[in-house]
Amino acid sequence: MTWEERWHPLREEWVILAAHRQNRPWIGETLSESEAFIPSYLSDCYLFPGNPRVSGKRNDNYTQAFVFDNDHPCVGLNAPTPAPTESLYKSRPATGIARVVCYSPYHNVTMAELDTLQIESVLRVWQEQDNELRTHPEVKHVLIFENKGEVVGVSNPHPHCQIYATNFVFKTIETEARVSQDYLAETGRVLFQDIIAEEQSDGRRILCDTGSAIAFVPYFARYAYEVYVAPKATHQRISTLSPIEIRDFAEVLRTVLVKFDNLWKRPFPYVMLLHQAPADGGEYGGYHFHIEFHPPLRKPSLLKYLAGPEIGGGNFISDTAPEEKAEELRAVSSIHYHHTGNTLK
Fold first, then answer.
1. Residue 327, Cβ neighbours under 10 Å: how many?
2. String of b and e for 101-116 (b: at least 16 CB within 10 Å)?
């Protein structure tokens, strides 16, 4: 048995590693390991090309990535102003823009099943959206994220992500931005560059190192199969990556996604977030754009439940060792275990 604490420098918190707990007796809830059938076309899917959405608006007959304003946004440019208060409790309008990005016209194709050129197309859409949304004076941060799989609460399996451009900076990004600037001021170096250097020096947790991009399970991973994908050069946001960097980034991203699916020969659930510097006009030269994957499963049928230490205490207990999980992912093929051969009906 081993107990170890690893410092998470981007979050300024300790992660407890107790990998011997992975195989502890479990008589709680488990998930089905079977792969549910999803058709390539669903007549009532509100994300499918040409179909009407709940708002009554109709989707374009798109053939590649398609963007629209969310019909049920969590923020809006016309958000009402709450009544003023003079107490400890405060409120303000939830101002911003919420959008949806569909990756593909096919209902049953995840990003893992797109080819590199199709993923490049999605990345360019993200670049365009980031550039445009940052021009709005109300927007202080652009969060691009994907929830994949029923176990993370996705409302529609059609391949898509969401964008929240908000009048505040999400707390995790706020912390990352602060610690990155502090590190730059103290050392003259970019924190994430030093993280990449540490991972390259160790080598055991690297999944893919191609051209100008890299993917690895971080030393301080909180989830069993947590993975970071990053450009090697420092960019504060995705929209400044060059065409060559986007090409390499797409290839590395695709490799990670395929390895996820190949691990258990089924669509692999995750929460994916683009970590970008705030858009509030501050100085963020030390911030390094990257994508983080937080997969909820620690076994094919078992969730990593967030309980007392995580929700109440605020620190993670990891039931696995990052080196072991990285080795599992390194060992699987980078060619997807099946090809859908989809055609629109």
1. 14
2. bbbbbbbbbbbbbbee
**Dist CA 162 CA 126 (whole Å):** 10
> pLDDT tens-digit profile of 240-294?
999 999 999 999 999 999 999 999 999 999 999 999 999 999 999 999 999 999 9
Report if residue 342 sits inside a domain.
no
Q: Determine the residue type at 285.
A: G
Residue type, 201: S
Range of the domain at 298: 4-22+38-79+91-331
- Report yes or no on 207 lying in a domain: yes
CA dist 212 → 125, 241, 250 (Å): 20, 10, 11
Number of structural domains found in the chain: 1
Only one residue has tokens 């799989």, namely: 149
- Looking at residue 37, its pLDDT comes to 67
DSSP string, 305-330: ---IIIIIIS--EESS-HHHHHHHHH
Residue 286 domain flag: yes
Is-above-0.70 flag for pTM? Answer: yes
pLDDT, mean over the chain: 90
Q: What is the spatial distance between Cα 157 and Cα 147, in angstroms, rounded to a whole number?
A: 10
- CA-to-CA distance for 263 and 217, rounded, in angstroms? 15
Q: What is the DSSP letter of 98?
A: E
Residue 20 is a catalytic residue? no
Q: Which of 8, 107, 141, 160 is catalytic?
A: 160
Residue 26 CA, distance from chain mean position: 29
* Amino acid residing at 236: Q
- The CATH number for 158's domain is 3.30.428.10
Low-confidence ranges of the chain (pLDDT < 70): 1, 19-37, 39, 305, 339-345
Q: What is the DSSP letter of 52?
A: B
Task: Please tell me the distance from the alpha carbon of residue 245 to that of residue 174, in angstroms, as a whole number.
Answer: 26
Please indicate, yes or no, if residue 340 is contained in any of the structural domains: no
Q: Looking at this protein, which amino acid is placed at residue 94? A: A
The pair of structure tokens assigned to 181 is 């600037």
First to last CA, the chain: 55
